[in-house]
Write the structure tokens for this entry.
Amino acid sequence: MIAISAMVLPGISGALILYLLGQYEYLSNNLHGFKDAGVGLLNGGSVDALVAPGAVVVTFVLGAGIGVLTISKVVAWALDHYRAATLTFLVSLMVGALRFPVEKIFEAETFAWTPTVLGGAVLAALVGGGAVLLLTTTQTTSTTEPIRPSAIRCFSMRTGFPM
């Protein structure tokens, strides 16, 4: 439930949360076991091999559904009532989430700031900044429909899925 909730928040991946909680390999192994048992079942294998990893996968999927619905409502409520603080928190998550992968890169024995690596980083930063500037300068808003405070509500309106 916690890992999938992170997928709604910007800058955090569910895989990172699972890794930090020490559950990434466990869930990954069960998912592969479930898949292999399903293929084995199609080839005449036993249902018993499907039960143990299937219980883990079903539990994860149920927790994921509850987590997404819960965290989306919490984020929508927070944006409606405490917009500035919530946006500050979400931006902080995005910036803070960069620390873990950057530390792993710098700890790697094969990493070095070569001109190619530095040029690639600068180019990526310029392209990303340019894309943000382009999107903000060309964005148009409709005067007939109010701007929604969260993308979650827009998703709800477009899909008809109650949030």
Remarks:
- The CA atoms of residues 115 and 159 lie 47 Å apart.
- The chain has a mean pLDDT of 79.
- The first helix runs from residue 2 to 6.
- The chain has eight helices and no strands.
